Amino acid sequence: MEKLKLLLLAFFLGLSINSWAQKTEVSGVILDDKNLPLPAANILEKGTTRSVVTDFDGKFKISVSNPNAILVVSFLGFTDQTVKLDGTKTNLTIKMASATNALEQVVVVGYGKGSRKNLTTSVTSIKAEELNRGALTDVGQLLQGKVSGLNISSSGDPTRTASVVLRGVSTLNSSQGPFYVIDGVPGVDISMISPDDIATIDVLKDAAATAIYGNRAANGVIMVTTKKGSKDRTQIAYNGYVGWEEVSNQLDMMDANQLRAFTTKNNLNFTPENDKGANTNWQKEILRSNMAKSSSHNISMSGGSKNGSYTASITSLNKEGVLLKSDFSRVIARLAVEQFAFDDKVKFGLNVTNSNSKYVNVPQRNTVLLQAASYLPVSPVRNPDGTFFENFTSTGYFNPVALIEHGTDETQTNNLVGNLTAEVKLPFGFTYNLSIAHQKLTSSHGEFYDSYYAKYNSANFYNNPDPPQNKSLVNFGQNGSALRNSYENTNNIIESFLTWDKTLGSHKIKAVLGYSWQENTLGDGFQATATNFPVDNVGYNNLALSNYTSVNGYVVNFGDSRAYQKTRLIGEFARLNYNFGDKYLLQGTIRRDGGSVFGVNNRWGYFPSVGGAWRVDKESFMQGQKVFSDLKFRASYGVTGNSSGFNAYTAQLVSGSLGTFYYNGQQIGAYGPNQFVNPDLKWEKTATTNIGLDFGLFNGKVTGSVDLYDKKTTDMIFTYAVNPVLAPVGTIVANGGTMSNKGIEVSLTATPVKTANFTWSTNLNLASNKNKIVKLTNPFFVGGDSIRRVQPDGGGQTGSTLQIFKEGKPLGQFFTLLYAGKNSAGVSQYVAKDGSLTTTPAIGVDYHYAGSAQPKVLLGWGNNFQYKKFDLSVFFRGVFGNKIFNATKADLFRPSTAMTTNILADAANESPTDLNAYKYSSRFIEDGSYIRLDNMTLGYNFGKVSKFIQNVRVYQTINNLFVITKYSGIDPEVEQGGTAPGVDSNNFYPKTRTFMFGLNVIF
């Protein structure tokens, strides 16, 4: 009988357990950190594929396999929660913790991670959902307006990346952009990363944050972290959009009727060769007939098990330019795998990314833009017989549509990055990390200009380069001209570091000691040019069909003799963080770097930094108050270096061709030094002092930071003019200059309204920077304390410059004639050097300082609204206090030439007898301030729509809806990078307005 009872008990117990496994349901509600329901949160039974999504009220029901199952709850922007069932509770209330809480956020810093609440340095973090939305192809555009102190400018050209300047320009060299680190690999090309693969971006601003990267960190460091797979769930996702772009603004040129009225009024006559009775809008003719199309498709898969995780994605990007032929396409494939071993004490990682891009450029782009503005509207695009209209007798007069039609300019690149990592957890709080990375970039560029180009007189076909380059003649040979080059760059990096993380009561110590080795091989390839092809449809792929030897005087261009380079960088670094009671924080770093690009006497440099912070909110006297949820003071000082912008030969004696000389009845090739050696060339160094305040108010409803900084670059490297007795070539690359940047940055984030159905959050960032060239001299320099530069060479402007490098003035200082209205005869006059008025000013002598291209204030303001399943984001961006030299307007402000080139409608009241009207002067310097509605996105989240589709979101985005500005040019977002900022010089690719529809699906 007892045995029977035991058997029955076992049977019913088994039946009960089996019923749990098959039929038991667990229900509950998911709340956010404000106790409000979270719709569309994901609940997964760990180790299975069972998952559900919460409804609009945050409620859920899920069948589980056993009474001790483990649930994993996840929601974008919140930390994943793991809940273990105890066999009795079937109705749960789960509260999620915000992952974006400013105090608890994990920040990626050099060679490690840290909690934002314990940072002693200035770092801004941007999560994927906070990046700019739109048909954007590079990180610069994704970050525009999002980070205080980050000045980013871009045009509408899909083949060009944005210019990025952090906390003002630090050097006179061309390299001014930040240093990028992607998933711990330094120096990776940022175009490798698909926007859909980005998890977070951390911008390291002050030297205390960046000094761990030593010689490459003078312009700031941007850390990009990509998405990783999860051990707890498998996910397939699709993100895609389609968009259409149109030109947002164009130059206001005279049409045929306006121009004809102007010439008639002023007794000017078109030549019969030009006046064909047309009314052509040339700016419109070089545009696509339909709106330019853009699209992006990203498919990703991720998942894992207890021993590892993986993520794989492929992205296809396509973006047409609004100008004819302009086009960009890219395919990015990415695989990231993490494998754990020995009870998770060892972790191996493999990251492989391959990016294949094709850039189809507008042939002779800047010349096309110039001609589209200046070509006469009374001339047609084509003759009655269908051929292109041309007037080859007019100097510098080229049909812009014909230039595009008869030319080809294409570049293809393939960029491969592989990174193998290992992390070993050792006893006593030690961790060892090893990273081995390889990057290989191959590029193939081709240009072909068919026989049509030979009709243009090569004696007056000038290119139209971006400032500060000067114009030069272009010769297209005869019967077609082709250029082809193929180059390969490789970058090998080995880095290892040991971390010690120890807590001793109230004392927390974290130390890092490491080594970095990097070798770059650049320009391994070839170039060749050819001319005289038998037919026009051969392109740049058929150089062998040319017969260039029969063209008298033609010389094959084999490219830059210095293209091939090999450089090496070696670094040793250490960092120590000390934390006492989460109240008093100290950090110190030191890096010793060696670089082969510098002089043999100065190849090693030291880059130290120190920082401290005081968390006031942790003090006893702050307990009980309800105003501050966070209050921290920070201060830091550090030194960083700059090794970019220089090549392997910068400090070397280089000899090359010096033309020819006549000897014994023949022209003999001359060779000799064209760059002088400088064995004492050393690092540029940038020292930054930063004082900061981080705060949170009213339980985190308002958070923000304020930073004051003083950044000074010394031993600035520049090519100085020297006495030929000291350096036979007349120049030397040497140290000598000093540049200063001082500024303030403010960031604020607030959630003014949050209810069960509606949330409004807003963020604002402001930055102001004052740039100044403190010193521009060198013991060998013969140029005094200034250098005049930027010479667009518009018609009648030979020798006229727009800007100056000057001690005591900022980079981008305008230095030109001072316009003083018109005299009694109606002729434009200017203020002479002695203060008198003159109509015959001397170039460079009667020049005056006339404002700066440097903005005084940068602004970014975003607002996010959520009502039930709808979400709306509105983002404004502004730049204030900068000047723009509108050289485009000056060159189109020539009433005396209205019968041969078009003029602006603004010139309607000008007199052709005023031959000074167009002179580069303060008359054409304008206020470049603007505020732009940069992005507006409306979305709807459907949540779970079927058993297999966990979430669906659709959205519509409009970029560049409007801009408010007084600037009369195409757009005030003129180039702010480089050494000639703020110059609009007949080269502005029109900005666009984008209309986009997108879809996000999670399976």
What does this structure look like?
With 1003 residues, the chain is mainly beta. 7% of the residues lie in helices and 48% in strands. The chain contains eight helices and 50 strands. The strands form ten sheets. It has a 22-stranded antiparallel β-barrel. The longest helix has 22 residues, at 2-23. It is globular, with a radius of gyration of 32 Å.
- Structural classification: mainly beta
The stretches of 5 or more residues where confidence is low (pLDDT under 50) are 3-22
Largest sheet, described in full?
A: 22 strands, antiparallel, barrel
Rg estimate, integer Å: 32 Å
Shape: globular
- How many DSSP helices? 8
Average of the residue pLDDT scores: 89
The counted number of beta strands is: 50
Estimate the strand proportion: over 45%
Give a quick set of tags describing it.
1003 residues, mainly beta, 22-stranded antiparallel β-barrel, 50 strands
Task: Quickly describe the structure.
With 1003 residues, the protein is mainly beta.
Secondary structure elements and pairings:
Elements: H1 2-23, E1 25-31, E2 42-45, E3 51-53, E4 59-63, E5 70-74, E6 81-84, E7 91-95, E8 106-109, E9 112-115, E10 123-127, H2 139-143, E11 150-153, E12 163-166, E13 179-182, E14 185-186, E15 198-204, H3 207-210, E16 221-226, E17 235-247, H4 256-265, H5 282-285, E18 292-305, E19 308-320, E20 327-341, E21 346-361, H6 365-374, H7 400-405, E22 407-425, E23 430-449, E24 481-504, E25 507-531, E26 565-580, E27 584-595, E28 604-615, E29 628-642, E30 654-663, E31 666-675, E32 684-697, E33 702-721, E34 731-754, E35 758-775, E36 786-789, E37 803-806, E38 813-817, E39 819-822, E40 828-831, E41 837-838, E42 847-852, E43 857-867, E44 870-880, E45 883-886, H8 887-891, E46 925-927, E47 930-943, E48 951-965, E49 983-984, E50 992-1002
Parallel strand pairs: 1-7, 13-16, 45-49
Antiparallel strand pairs: 1-4, 2-3, 2-5, 5-6, 8-9, 10-15, 11-12, 13-14, 15-16, 17-18, 17-50, 18-19, 19-20, 20-21, 21-22, 22-23, 23-24, 24-25, 25-26, 26-27, 27-28, 28-29, 29-32, 30-31, 32-33, 33-34, 34-35, 35-43, 36-37, 37-38, 38-42, 39-40, 40-41, 43-44, 44-47, 45-46, 47-48, 48-50
